[in-house]
Amino acid sequence: MKLLLIEDGKQLAESIAEYLATEGYHCEIASNLEDALAKVTLHDYDCVLLDITLPDGNGLTVLERLKKDGKMEGVIIISAKDSLDDRIKGLKLGADDYLPKPFHLSELGARVEAVIRRNKFQGSSKITFKELTIDAQAQLVSVNDNTLQLTRKEYNLLLFLVANKGRIISKTSIAEHLSGDMADMLDNHTFVYAHIKNLKKKLSDSGCGDYVKTIYGFGYQWEA
Amino acid sequence: MRKKLLDKTLRVYILFSLMVLVVSAPLFYFLADKLFIDDADEALLLRKNEFISNNLHSLMPADIPVWNKFNRDIKIEEIRAGGIRDSIFYRFYLDTLANENEPYRVLQSPVKIGTKSYVFMARINLVESEDMIKGIALLFIAILATLLIGLYFITKRLSKRLWKPFYSTLEQVEQFELDKNTKSDFPSTDIEEFGRLNQSVIKLLERNVMIYKSQKEFIENASHELQTPLAAFQVKLDTLAQQLPFTSELGKTLSDLNDSVSRLNRINRNLLLLSRIENNQYTTLEEIRIDEILKKQIDFFTEQAEENNISIHLKYAEPCIKRANPTLLEIGVSNLLLNAVRHNQNNGQIVISLYQHTLSISNTGAAAVLQEEKLFQRFSQSGITGGSGLGLSIVKKISDLHGWQLAYKFEGEMHIFLLSF
User: Fold this and answer.
1) pLDDT digits (tens, 9 = 90+) for A69-105
2) Domain range holding B394?
3) What is the pLDDT of residue A82?
4) Could B300 and A104 be called an inter-chain contact, meaning their C-beta atoms sit closer than 8 Å?
5) How many Cβ atoms are within 10 Å of B303's Cβ, its own excluded?
6) Domain total for chain A?
7) Binding-site residues on chain A for chain B (CB distance < 8 A)
């Protein structure tokens, strides 16, 4: 899987690329608009991470170019300019997702995964992990072909954990992921514990192995 | 108590006029009286001299009763007792027609008619003089009153016209609001002082607007600039968590760091939101069902509240449609709810009711009345509870923007926030 990260913050770009590399993606970095435009015309990427504010112009130009060239890349806008206008404009131009800065890498990872899954398999792909199967389109979870009854939050939590499998995820990032637009309103992250507990119980009741490891004081990990 | 400028000048004028009236009226009365008496005395002396030169030598003692009979005001009487000297004095005589005592000015002088000594008495009625003095005094008062009334109206009119540019300037300054982009328009004036006043006020206002604008821009730019390093910080933290051999102490430290970044983030976003509201970036209004937004937000916060054993009661919510900005309305309602959760106590409760014109959210909590004026200020009570310190000031801004009222009270051990649409 090839990704293009268009981001002018060097430190941020390197960290993101490093993280995504451990997820098994090959990540290229473009730190300005000129570079980015050259790269998207020459190569095909599975997913483009796009910062709007670039030193030499507006990142949305890249989106326009991609659209003109008829390329099918999934585009996630990562922007410090969290304005409604940009969000609407970006999504209108064909971006798949919009992630305001700052964000958790686990959140970014999950979104990249979701975008690629949607684009590559038109959303019909099934995520399987040992005895566990997640049908992302039907939003159904089954263990050994037995369908599980999960709440919406439990389902999102499972998907998030599995998308970041092998990785330590902080309580904060889980809480923010589950709360979506309301993440700013979070006062404490203890509710994550209750959801994890319920999810673990449902999984083990249906005969699924216990893959959720508690990282004491910090968060959780889906053991790969 | 403060008085109006016009009233103050008029008051001084009136006071002065009254003082002149009070001092001059008795003075005038005595002067007029004295003049009249002097006049009367002179007339009496003249009569005496005329009598001595015209009548005295031809008058016989036998003529005296006849003289007295026909002369009402000049009488010749026999000396009854003691020596009589020339003198002028006041005396009252009974007026038989009016049957009352009337004041007279009387001159008496010893005369010799034949061999016998008589006393010559001449008198002048002073009733007429009193009437005249009264008349003059009345006239005097009338003139003064006219002068006063004239002065009052002229001053009033003149001052009004003179001070008109001043009042116009005053009104403009009063209506001026720093955060509304109103253009002040001062009328031109041909009075130098007012011209200078207008110039200074315009300069002052423009300077304030400029400072205010640059401050707003500064906050927005600062928040923007902070976002990139914050993002890098957040990402580095996440990377760090993957690289370490994890111990529980480290986990705790990292978790605390995460919370701090989260809080920084919230403060930053809220600052950005505040400056965006102030920069009028949320101007589109829609018809919104407030009850639906409220219910949606309550769903979210119920989970949060349960963590602290807080129960949320939606006591009453009637369908309510208001014109508002959807983004801001959601933020406002959720900030109020968050506030009610955050400042609550264990096993506390939140009571919410929505009527056509009011939304009230009350919560249990520390049993102390909060200072309303400080409550809605930025960062006035952050730090203690881990909030951004901006939540309520954002609610206030949102309510101001929509022309709503936000009030706080402490009643029955509950902190009550009232939003009136």
Assistant:
1) 887 778 999 887 666 677 788 888 888 889 888 888 8
2) 286-420
3) 63
4) no
5) 14
6) 2
7) 9, 11-12, 15-16, 18-19, 22, 80-84, 101-106, 167-168, 170-173, 176, 179, 182, 184-188, 190-191, 215-219
- A41-56 confidence digits (pLDDT tens): 888 888 999 988 888 8
Q: Name the one residue in this structure whose structure tokens are 């999504």.
A: A91
List the single best residue of B240, B262, B276 to mutate versus A (max A Cβ within 10 A).
B262
User: Can you tell me which residue has the tokens 């705790």?
Assistant: B252
DSSP B244-265: S---HHHHHHHHHHHHHHHHHH
> Which B residues 259-278 touch A at CB under 8 Å?
259, 261-262, 265-266, 269-270, 272, 276
The residues with which A5 forms a beta bridge, in sequence order, are A29, A49
Examine the domain organization and report whether A93 and A159 are in the same domain: no
List, for residues B26-52, the tens digit of each pLDDT value: 888 888 888 888 988 999 999 889 888
% of chain B exceeding 90 in pLDDT: 8
Q: What is the predicted pLDDT for the residue at B189?
A: 80
Contacts of A191 in chain B (CB under 8 A): 303-304, 306-307
Residue A138 has pLDDT above 60, yes or no: yes
Q: With DSSP H G I counted as helix, E B as strand and the rest as coil, what are the percentages for chain B, rounded to 5?
A: 60, 20, 25
Q: What chain B residue is nearest to A182 in terms of C-alpha separation? A: B300
- CATH for A180: 1.10.10.10
What CATH number is given to the structural domain containing A95?
3.40.50.2300
Please name the residues in contact with B33: beta carbons below 8 A apart, sequence gap of 6 or more: B129, B133
Query: What average pLDDT score do residues B336-344 get?
Result: 88
Closest partner residue to A12 (CB to CB) among B232, B250, B307 is B232
